[in-house]
Amino acid sequence: MPGSNFSPAASFGLLVLRLTAAAMLAITHGWPKLMGYSERAATFPDPLHVGHDRSLMMTIFAEVLCATLVALGFATRLASAVLVVLFSVILLFIHGSDPFSKRELPLLYGVVYLCLVFTGPGAYAVDARYGPKVKFGGGK
Fold first, then answer.
1. Is the pLDDT of residue 1 over 50?
2. Cα distances (Å, whole numbers) of residue 121 to 13, 54, 63
3. What is the DSSP letter of 62?
4. Using only C-alpha atoms, what is the Rg of the chain?
5. What is the largest CA-CA distance in the chain?
6. Phi/psi of residue 65, each to 5°?
7. Mean pLDDT (whole number) for 110-114
8. Helices (H), the chain
9. How many C-beta atoms surround the C-beta of residue 50 within 10 A?
10. Residue 69 burial (CB count, 10 A)
11. What is the dihedral sign for C-alpha 51, 57, 59, 62?
12. How far separated are the first and last CA of the chain, in Å rounded?
């Protein structure tokens, strides 16, 4: 595939990772927040002190829109970076003093998206053909 330095097997692995993580995040976390927005807006956690409703909007943006972009492999690094910030806030401010069992899931999601920031989406993505050619680590 043009625009990718990954083998077909590595690109397929990144595709499975992107699709699985993004679908699970959007379907099990983001979509319920979007559908229950009015019920949750007044009481949603506000760790950045921007307002409960704005915190919920930013979370929905990340969990639905950014996860969908990651699944498609479009603007993957940028969308993944937004998700890394989201999960960093969740880990540090929402579950910072909770036991590890409460921090395990956001940590896992955060690491997945951090890896995608560095690797990119692989060859089986919209970015591979049309996206920006951003490389980390001194590549030509």
1. no
2. 10, 29, 18
3. I
4. 16
5. 51
6. -70, -50
7. 98
8. 8-25, 31-35, 37-40, 52-60, 67-72, 76-89, 100-119, 126-130
9. 11
10. 22
11. negative
12. 18
CA atoms of 58 and 63, how far apart (whole Å): 9
Torsions phi, psi for 134 (to 5 deg): -100, 125
Dist. CA 9–CA 78, nearest whole Å: 24
pLDDT beyond 80 at 137: no
Higher pLDDT pick, 131 / 140: 131
Residue whose entry in the numeric block shows the structure tokens 């949603």 = 44
Here the tokens at position 36 are 């229950």
Q: Are 37 and 54 in contact (CB under 8 A)?
A: no
Q: Which of 73, 65, 72 is nearest to 4 (CA)?
A: 73
pTM of the model: 0.89
Q: Show the DSSP H helices in 26-99 as ranges.
A: 31-35, 37-40, 52-60, 67-72, 76-89
- Both structure tokens of 136: 């980390």
Place of tokens 């969908």: 68
